[in-house]
Amino acid sequence: MSTSPVTAAPLDPVALRADFPILGEQVNGHRLVYLDSAATSQKPTAVLDAERAFLTHANSAVHRGAHTLAAEATDLFEDARAAVAGFVGAAPQQLVWTSGATMGLNLVAYAIGNASVGRGAPASARLALAPGDEIVTTAIEHHANLIPWQELAARTGAVLRHIPARDDGTLDLDAAATLISPRTRIVAFTHVSNVLGIVNPVAELIALAQQVGAVTVMDACQSAPHLPLDLPGLGVDLAVFSAHKMVGPYGVGGLYGRTDVLEALPPFLTGGSMITTVTLDSAEYLPPPQRFEAGTQPVGPAIGFAAAVRYLDAVGLENIHAHEGMLAARMAEGLRDIPGIRLLGDAAGVERVGLWSFDVDGVHAHDAGQLLDARGIAVRVGHHCAAPLHSRYGITASVRASAALYNTVDDVDEFLDAVRGIRPYFGVE
Question: Where is the signal peptide, in residue numbers (predicted)?
């Protein structure tokens, strides 16, 4: 049973691949070249084993039963919280389990909405929105960091504003400095765009928000698997991430929050396990993080998530970032040399992760993706849950190739060779 990665410094992706059983599969008679980790990553044996071991030997409800299995399950569950919190530099009480980043963002938006109608403790009033207050997000967000704020604005009368993207995919910080004003109550942004792959200047955005006392909310889905993160050190108030993008299981994610901010948020979901006292007419709630963890929790996935962050830690986030940066540079160099390929977010001199989206002139992204799949190459096609960003660049869909720690130079070269054949195959050269 594999319990730790087989790696070296610098990172050896060929050795790592042995830890990921699915990478030995064939697709359409070709070896699998998996370049869709931005959508969901593959899982190492250590993660699969951790979840199975819990279900086999300690499966029980947490924070409830007084029997031995319940106590063991609770210990494993809370040990997992400590491991995942530590991975992003946080204390265990600053990490709320969610079903993923989408739920985390909705939790925050709906909790602020509850504060806006007078729910919660006295401290919740500082989060309340009123008509004319402003929420600032960006033009490059995933729908999960856009639609909840649209809904919150509609419920409270707040005004939603957007920091624009420049032609090269970078955020317009001059516009941000103008948009973030004393009326701004929330600033929500992605750390890394799931379309552009650019690491955004979040320190500058956080500083602008802090100057006006706004709450900051960061989508860390595309950074947590690829960059060392210290969320308290970064100064962000709230941040979300998903296990399935971090070589972990489906169905679990994390919401990090500064202690005072979590304590001010009213509950979002209510029910069992998040209360102290209940009568037929009223209830009192536990402090965070349990206040936000109503009902049955994803115990097995949380334990698998802990195994995933331990795996990433053992490989080393610095090693991962350097390796993926090398792959991204090779990918970009090759794509730029192919006629009819337009890279999105091809900004010079910016930090990025191993992700590129591109448009193929004369060929729909879905057709391009099917041709790549015929050669065993898995990429993402569509608007990647970022339709407004694609509209900004005058297209409805793109092809996205995203690398991870287990990808090799051979993967990238096979991908580039296949992309060279797309336009000739469809007769548009």
Answer: none
In the β-sheet with 341-344, what is the strand arrangement from edge to edge? 341-344, 355-360, 398-402, 380-382
**Residues with Cβ within 8 Å of residue 84, at least 6 apart in sequence:** 95, 254, 302, 305, 306, 309
Residue 247 pLDDT greater than 50, yes or no: yes
Question: If you average pLDDT over every residue of the chain, what do you get?
Answer: 96
Residue 39 falls in which region: left (phi positive, over 0), alpha (psi -120 to 50) or beta: alpha
Residue 199's nearest CA partner among 331, 324, 341, 16 is 324
- Is it the case that residue 119 has pLDDT exceeding 50? yes
- The pLDDT score that the predictor gives to residue 3 is 43
N-term to C-term CA, the chain: 51
DSSP 170-238: -B-HHHHHHHS-TTEEEEEEESB-TTT-BB--HHHHHHHHHHTT-EEEEE-TTTTTTS---HHHHT-SE
Please report, for the chain, the start and end positions of each structural domain, with discontinuous segments joined by +: 13-45+316-425, 52-313
**Distance from the Cα of residue 311 to its chain's centroid:** 18
What would be the CATH architecture of the domain defined by 52-313?
A: 3-Layer(aba) Sandwich (3.40)
Catalytic residue among 18, 317, 347, 385: 385
- According to the model, what pLDDT value does residue 2 have? 39
**Residue 39 DSSP class:** T
Separation CA 79–CA 57 (nearest Å): 16
Nearest to 31 by CA among 399, 407, 369: 407
Q: Is 267 helix (H, G, I), strand (E, B) or coil?
A: coil
pLDDT at 299 over 90: yes
* CATH number given to 13-45+316-425: 3.90.1150.10
**190, two tokens:** 């992605």
Contact 32, 379 (CB under 8 A): no
In whole angstroms, give the CA distance from residue 47 to residue 54.
11
- Give yes or no: 385 in active site: yes
Residue with tokens 């007078």: 118
C-alpha span between 325 and 172 (Å, rounded) = 24
Q: What is the pLDDT of residues 357-404, one digit of tens each?
A: 999 999 999 999 999 999 999 999 999 999 999 999 999 999 999 999
C-alpha pair distances (Å), 29 with each of 32, 171, 207, 361: 9, 42, 52, 28
